[in-house]
From TrEMBL:
UniProt keyword annotation of Transmembrane present: yes
InterPro entries attached to this UniProt entry: UstE-like (IPR010721)
Bilayer-crossing regions: 20-47, 54-74, 80-99, 128-148, 160-178
Descriptive protein name: DUF1295 domain-containing protein
Organism phylogeny: Bacteria, Bacillati, Actinomycetota, Actinomycetes, Kitasatosporales
Natural source organism: Streptomyces pyxinicus
Keywords: Membrane, Transmembrane, Transmembrane helix
Classification via Pfam families: DUF1295
Amino acid sequence: MNGFQWGGFRWGGSPWSAFPWGAFAVNLAWAAAAALAVLLVTFAVAVRAGVHRIVDVAWGIGFTAVAAVTLAASAGHGDLIRRVLVTALTALWGLRLAVHIARRGRGHGEDPRYEALLAKAPGNRNAYALRVVYLLQGALVWLVSLPVQAAQYVPGPPSPLLWCGTALWAAGLAFEAVGDAQLARFKADPANQGRIMDRGLWSWTRHPNYFGDFCVWWGLFLLACDSPAAAAVSVVSPLVMSLLLTRGSGARLLERHLADRPGYADYQARTSGFLPRPPRRR
């Protein structure tokens, strides 16, 4: 027999033909429609409120919508345990993030990032925001969610990869949630006004929430890896997310914003920029 057996699915032989490509292609369209709908509704709410920072709340909601639509569209395909699990993990991560961002931004005006971006608008600011913020974010939700979509069409029962991915996802969610909670408590104390957060997880990495995101998306990718076809079509997702978190709108952009703050250079010198490790001595 060509190939080998893993978790009820045979690698080798004709693994590509075992994946339901036609149904998955239809699902890609449904997922794109779900992501677009979430971002267009968010755009309408933001225009009415006059604050485009609301789009950050839609990030997690968009992934939740894609996962839910895929769960419905994949009926009759894939393994029920895998389908329900990947949907639940995505929704838990996405809704927690949405609630956290909504609470953090309550009562604040426009985000300085969006203020600076929209200041460059050649014409109508809202039309410009729709093109370069909302539609782009909708496309990224669709692209990054590929493992969430592909995993639900993987034939065969789950293998140990499913539980490895779930464990990595859980570690990432814990990093995000604990890091966010520690930072919120730090900022709520008036004695810390103007100081750099360098305690708890923030003493091990300058970006525990971004590192948590990194683990979440590589974990979700592992849930699709029982099928070589699903793995191949969705590996772009964690790679793109890793680039966004480390080189794009994540850690690098935030570090530029904080570079001139007193004490930040010393914090950079003793604390890892991304992967957690014990802090260096002062």
